[in-house]
What does this fold into?
Amino acid sequence: MINRIAFSRPQSLLIALRYKDIRSYIITAAFVMLAVFVPWVFHQFHLAGPTFLPMHIFVLIAGLLFGWRAGLLVGLFTPLVSYFISGMPTLNVLPQVVIEVSAYGFIAGILREKYHLRTIWSLLGTIIGGRLALLLAISVIYLIAGQSYSPLGLEANPLASFWSTIKQGWPGIAIQLAFIPAIIWLVGKFAAQNVKSRKA
It folds into this structure.
């Protein structure tokens, strides 16, 4: 019973990207571009990225669909490409965003690819693990630079930065929990139908 609730079949990924062919790199680049473009659109409508977390969505989906390698690479490159294109996230929070978002992609992929957890449990574990990575990143940066930043600016200490980031991002977390499992399910159904039609 617990196994059925928590775990899915070993073939739970759409496809585990191994980076031995050009398709893996094309898929990764496409997810990075989506994760950069959608937050840019949000900013055009004055919707706060740190509130709705649109960048996180494509990183999480990449990890859940394509495994930890894809999740890690999409998470690593997305904030860097976004910064060089649009200047967002700002330089003072860029290092912690890189660490946090990379952790999301990596953990999501590990929980699905290695442990075969169902999407919702992988997502919950990733949200918790990514926030812990964020706290660690903020703390290390504070020890090195003597300053602590959140999306709202300079904070008194690492815990204040961490709590400010968590409070501001609750709507984005709710969006992730509401929509990402449905997206993963729909993509899986679509892929399964394509496989059946090819065999027919």
